[in-house]
Design brief:
Length: 261
Amino acid sequence: MNLDVSGKDVFVSTGGFDFDKAKPSIILMHGSGLTHIVWSLHEQFYASQGYNVLSVDLPGHGNSEGPSLKSIEDISTWVKNLMGALDIKKIIILGHSQGCLVGIDFASRYPDLIDGLVLVSGSYKMPVNQELIDLAEAGDDKAILLMMKWGYEGSKAFIGGNPVKKIINSSREIIEILSVDLNACNNYKTGKEALEKINCPTLCIFGDLDKMVPLKVGNKMSELIKNSETKVINNCGHMIIFEKAFEMRNIVKEFILKIKK
């Protein structure tokens, strides 16, 4: 569906279900340079559990009008505005990679608006390799190749091949938005302080082979969140949402149904 958020046209995939204000809502936050398409193996599954699924294209991404938002703080404010546009009082945020930073920031700033938080392949700080930023800012396609190398190094587990390569190849604009997203991650410096303010139930999910967010880094984050639990998926890298989608879905389902009760 399309809606107006702060005067801009925004695309939100609902997994094929009609939006129902009476249902609880879960927002799916994609990572740097990507779109709602990365959640294609998840949307209908969570919707079938009785949730409104709001799988967003961030401003400037996919089918949403630009410009791209330049900071994590701006994105979490945008999420609040999205809730206002739909008249939603509370949400669960499910974020992957950069989406985790958004979830952390949102939960710390708007504790009365969030019921739960799921952080997948994330950390409270995500410094980005300067070479990658430089390539992205120069519009060099090598930036995408580096992201794929670092994102999948150590893991060969995919459902139907490497889907991100297909998604990236189908999006001519990705290199234009990638540098903005990478800088937003690199410049977010208040994550540790934000973690200390999170009070909602939180689930952290990590892949044991993740090279971008090593398990020891992820565990450090989860230890700093008061009301959190951690699940580790074996033989899996950074892109859990593809590599072990079905296993991840069941873990998330168990968590969100506990919140629903």
